[in-house]
Write a structure and sequence with these properties.
CATH architecture: 3-Layer(aba) Sandwich
Strand content: 25-35%
Number of domains: 1
Largest sheet: 8 strands, mixed
CATH superfamily: Class I glutamine amidotransferase (GATase) domain
Shape: globular
CATH class: Alpha Beta
Distance between the termini: 18 Å
Helix content: 25-40%
């Protein structure tokens, strides 16, 4: 049985993520909602959800004693498969610029910048949008032609190198819809709200062997 740690640091979409992971896993995996570093150490896979403000999420996670240190040890040093969702993806970068500069994890070089509003392009970007794969990736297998996913965000990832981008979306300008690097994978959209496409991505993640 695969043990999955879904990290609880006060993010608003925690329970919908837990339900979606359970649906994707069936009875094959043990999904544990936790902020206990010992659970992180015992997990085979780690998921970090996120909704809201980059700085608030960064500070809330840092406020849990030993949590970031356990994540860094088991994800970066030991290579456990990791999935970041929305702000959970954005936190992987060097810093975010929401209400000033806030440091991220620095696991993927780059920054998180504001979406620019324009006629017909309000911010936040909320709703369904097409996901365009840059190339094959095991977590994005089997999505079918022209897959769509559900987005809700005002800021987006700007990685330092294009090869970190696993998928694009377009909202006027291109948006990095998914990033991938070694055992790290993250989506700007919400798989837990993206119906069949989202469940396929979660199911792929649960069997992914980076």
């Amino acid at each position: 049985m695969t043990r999955v740690a879904l990290i609880d640091y006060g993010s608003g979409n925690l329970h919908s993520c837990a339900r979606a992971l359970a649906a994707a896993a069936g009875s094959a995996d043990d999904i544990k909602v936790t902020n206990n570093p010992e659970d992180i150490a015992a997990a085979d896979r780690i998921v970090l959800p996120g909704v809201g403000h980059f700085a608030d999420c960064a500070h809330a996670l840092a406020a849990v004693p030993g949590l970031f240190e356990a994540m860094e040890k088991h994800i970066i040093r030991y290579g456990r498969p990791f999935l970041g969702i929305c702000v959970g993806l954005q936190l992987l970068l060097d810093f975010g610029l929401e209400d000033g500069r806030t440091e991220g994890f620095g696991w993927i070089p780059g920054k998180v910048v504001a979406l620019e509003p324009a006629p017909g392009r309000p911010v936040p970007h909320v709703g369904w949008n097409q996901v365009e794969l840059r190339g094959p990736h095991p977590v994005l297998d089997g999505l079918g032609p022209e897959p769509h996913a559900y987005f809700t965000h005002s800021y987006a990832c700007q990685p330092r190198r294009i090869d970190y981008v696993a998928a694009w979306s377009h909202y006027g300008d291109p948006i990095a819809a998914a990033l991938a690097h070694d055992n790290l994978f993250g989506t700007q959209f919400h798989p837990e709200k993206s119906q069949k496409v989202g469940l396929t991505i979660l199911s792929n993640f649960l069997t992914w062997k980076p």
